[in-house]
Amino acid sequence: MLKRLLITLALLSPVTLQAADLRIVATTNSMGALASAVGGERIALTVLAPPDRDAHFLQAKPSMMRDLRRADLVVSVGAQLEAGWLPVAVKRSANRDIQPGQPGHFEAAEHVDLLDVGETGAGHVHASGNPHFNLDPRAMRAVLPALAERLADIDPAGASAYRENAATAITRIENRMPQWQARVEKAPGAVFHHADTRYLMDWLDLPTLGYLEPTPGVPPTARHIGGLADSLAGTDGVIIHAPYYSERGPAKLANQLDWPVEQLYTEPDAPTLDAWIELIDAWVAALARPST
Q1: Nearest alpha carbon to residue 122 among 24, 210, 205
Q2: Which of 28, 100, 131, 256 could bridge 229 with an S-S bond, Cβ 3.0-4.6 Å?
Q3: 2-177 — its CATH code?
């Protein structure tokens, strides 16, 4: 009962942790997980995007601008993920410290080796690179030291704490990576809604067997589902999609292939490293399901 209550509270946005010295605003729970892991008790954290919403399609709200106006640092995914709403909210916040190019403006994507740079047909349209790296432990690990240094620049008194916290978080992630990889060693692959799992599958060296979207942003059609079913007939796999997408397409494909269907969010239910690790646990378990 307590866990359910905590999850319910985590789905309410914005999420604010205890008050502290530095005020950090993260755009998603994944970015919040990095911030809380590095910042520890020296920060107060607010997250703008609820984990049960697609962060592409939020709207700049007065509450966002209020939180950004008071922020010392904004931690975003970058690579145009929040392009439809964050630039407007940051500009209207009238907070000079968090404008692009200022120390208070941190884009995690700048510290990640992005995939699909210049491509526009892999399930999303992001010419600057696929921004959905939050399910890739390699990428999240790479952001941690960069974020620690940025916090150290803003708050020199906490520099040693930030660097130590980042090192601890990196160790936690690295210790889990072999376990996750071993769990899916014989997994056959999966069909997804679109390419927000691109980094996850690249890291696990698993095949993406198809996308439910015929083209980026276009809902599944009966013809497309039929074509996927024909091409995958006689094979094994799993269909995984976020709960905020229609279940009709996945259900139809699953019925034709006799495959299991899993519903998983791509964001942790809380802005903590523990919650992010639990999210990767869930994705790994779903991918391993047909092979167990």
Answers
A1: 210
A2: 256
A3: 3.40.50.1980
Architecture of domain 181-291: 3-Layer(aba) Sandwich (3.40)
Closest by Cα among 60, 281, 58 to 179: 281
CA dihedral 55, 24, 71, 9 (to 10 degrees): 60
Cβ atoms of residues 55 and 176 within 8 Å: no
**41-63: per-residue pLDDT in tens?**
999 999 999 999 888 889 999 99
- Residues 209-248: pLDDT tens digits? 999 988 877 889 999 999 999 999 999 999 999 998 889 9
**Per-domain residue ranges of the chain:** 2-177, 181-291
223 residue type, one letter: R
DSSP 5-34: HHHHHHTSSSEE----SEEEEESSHHHHHH
> What is the Cα–Cα distance from 36 to 272, expressed in whole angstroms?
6
pLDDT digits (tens, 9 = 90+) for 120-136: 544 445 678 999 999 99
d(C-alpha 106, C-alpha 77), whole Å? 9
Please determine, for residue 38, whether its predicted confidence score (pLDDT) is greater than 60. yes
**46 has which bridge partners?**
16, 25
* Percentage above 90 pLDDT, the chain: 80
Quickly count helices (H) and strands (E) in the chain.
Answer: 10, 9
Selection from 37, 32, 64 nearest residue 51 by Cα: 32
Cα–Cα distance between 25 and 31 in angstroms, integer? 9
Handedness of CA 137, 79, 11, 211 (dihedral sign): negative
> Which residues, listed in sequence order, are joined to residue 43 by a DSSP beta bridge?
22
Mean pLDDT for 242-267 is: 94
